[in-house]
Amino acid sequence: MAIKKSELYSSLWKSCDELRGWMDASQYKDYVLVLLFVKYVSDKYAGDSYAPLVIPEGGSFNDRVALKGKEMVDWLSNLVGIFQAESLDFSKNKAEGDDILGDAYEYLMRHFATESGKSKGQF
To answer: How much is the pTM?
Structure first.
């Protein structure tokens, strides 16, 4: 089943909530967008020998999940846990031309800008 954008957006904002208090809103994107990208690439291309990119050893989302609670601090483990939800399985998203990462980026930039009191362009 394809990912519902409402579920994606809810998970993205939940991940931002997890980071609030630990860092400035302008820094959330550094963690959230990178983790979203790693999750997307891992789901879409893991085990695909014809993938347009290679996931290096130890660089997959599942490798991040394996580190949860051992080497990472609690808030980062919680962040990884949010993206671990079965509802965010990008491998099931088969719609051609669906720019789900672009939409997620726009969603976050809009909310980060609002939270920091800037326009999306300024942010």
So the answer is: 0.59
* Closest listed residue to residue 83, CA positions, set 62, 109, 69: 62
Sequence ranges of the domains in the chain: 5-116
Exposed e or buried b per residue across 34-58, where buried means at least 16 C-beta atoms within 10 angstroms of its C-beta: ebbebbbbbbebeeeeeeeeebeee
- Encoded tokens for 91: 């491998």
Render pLDDT for 99-117 as a digit per residue (tens, 0 to 9). Answer: 888 888 888 888 877 776 7
Whether the CB-CB separation of 99 and 49 falls below 8 Å is answered with no
Could you give the CA distance from residue 75 to residue 17 in angstroms, rounded to a whole number? 10
Tell me which H or E stretch contains 121.
Answer: none
